[in-house]
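Annual report, structural modelling task.

Input specification for the iron/sulfur cluster complex:
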Amino acid sequence: MEASKTTGLTESPHYVRMSLAAAMTLGFKRGLFYRNARLYCINLLLTYEQGCAARCAYCGLSGKRPGTYGGKSFIRVTWPTYDLGEVMDRIAERGRRVQRICLSMITSKRAVEDTEEICARLRSRLDTPISVLVSPTILRAGDLRAFRRAGADKVGVAVDLATPELFELYRGKGVGGPHRWTRYWECLAEALEVFGQGNAGPHFMVGMGETEEEMCRAIQRARDMGGRTHLFSFYPEAGSALEHRPPPPIDQYRRVQLARYLVDERLSHESRFSYDEEGRIADFGLSRGNLDLVIETGEPFRTSGCTGRDGHVACNRPFANSRPGPHMRNYPFPPTADDVARIRRQMGQVPMTAGTTQEDDREFRAESAGS
Ligand code: SF4
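The model returned the following structure:
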């Protein structure tokens, strides 16, 4: 891997960083996934010596976090850097195994131009569907159309926070950051217009101090606009401003996962939900019987992300939001009957002791201790 001739640095558009899971999938890194999970989306990230100009409190790439950009972990894993040409060769070799490529922007002045160029280069070599995880703050009118012309077919908008107050606190004035809540929702609306209904969606992260009610309202708002939510569970990143914050309780995350699925699949509507005095979901607006049938499928607890050519979720992000183990948050594969039984226990539907294994107990204690 040699540095680019122009800057002498390994920077985009000639180079990209990729998630450790993607590097394993393409054979750049050795490793095995827990329960033989498989990743179907190659998650790429723009890379510049200067790094990201934003300062989001929970993000490993934050400009406020000490260290060189290339050395900063992201979503708790390393993201090694590779020559884009080599990456395309490896994807071509793997054919239909790779169902999608996602290019994540960072807040940098060269990011818009380089995103368009990288999409065009990917499209010129591969027929793999391409998502762009955009940075709304630096996008100008026409940029989303340019990404589409260059070959992208879906867009993600990482709103992340469920309320304007939390957004301001963790991404805006609260951290001296450039991002604004209204700009992110505007960008989602623009992306749905340019890419079409269902081809753009927000990322939301559970566990940032929002109530379940506030999160469900944000998910419904996106659904009413035509978008589908990609759900994440907060997972502290060492060295970030929120490194000491624990993940949300597992029962909270399970209820919000279920709510997201019911809303996005139009099986219920937030206006039919009811909440307790602390804003926790008390009723999903479905009969007990129907709710049980939905839970029994396990589908609500799978990773929600961009789909591939086969219509299934390609961006399944194995173990990006929790440790690999029985208490994983987003299932990157269909949950088994045992998994669904465990999920019911986690939601408090069945006493936690019923049918638990030693490993369950150990993991549950570790999980509750937020380790
Ligand atoms: S869900 Fe995955 S593929 Fe889609 S925009 Fe988000 S990170 Fe990218």
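The chain has one domain: 15-363.
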